[in-house]
């Protein structure tokens, strides 16, 4: 959106000005999450891909927003977003 604003063409004697409005495209899922089955004690990995790089995302389990910890690792690089769930237990389902 830094490109939005007024632009002027100036000949020295005359000027013409136009406004540029940049409409932001919504962030969509290019590849959605898929169900994952993992053995107890292993690492589960969930990943999806977005249409815009580095868009802000939140990971949730039910209503609870997940934060990086020994249990959860969150990676985001460009359009790819991943959640690692370490040492999977029954309550992680």
UniProtKB/TrEMBL annotation:
One GO cellular component term noted in the UniProt record for this chain: cytoplasm
InterPro entries: Ig-like_dom, Ig-like_dom_sf, Ig-like_fold, Ig_I-set, Obscurin/Obscurin-like_Reg
Name of the gene encoding the protein in the UniProt record: Obscn_8
Keyword Disulfide bond in annotation: yes
Record PROSITE patterns: IG_LIKE
Name the record gives this protein: OBSCN protein
Ig-like domain boundaries: 26-93
Key words, A-Z: Cytoplasm, Disulfide bond, Phosphoprotein
Location within or outside the cell: Cytoplasm
Signal peptide region: none
One Pfam family hit: I-set
């Amino acid at each position: 959106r830094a490109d939005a604003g007024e632009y002027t063409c100036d000949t020295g004697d005359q000027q013409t000005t136009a406004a540029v409005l940049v409409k932001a495209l919504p962030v969509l899922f290019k590849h959605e999450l898929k169900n994952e089955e993992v053995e107890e004690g292993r690492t589960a990995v969930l990943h999806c891909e977005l249409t815009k790089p580095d868009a802000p995302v939140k990971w949730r389990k039910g209503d609870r927003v997940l934060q990086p910890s020994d249990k959860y690792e969150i990676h985001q690089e460009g359009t790819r977003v991943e959640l690692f769930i370490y040492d999977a237990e029954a309550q992680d389902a």
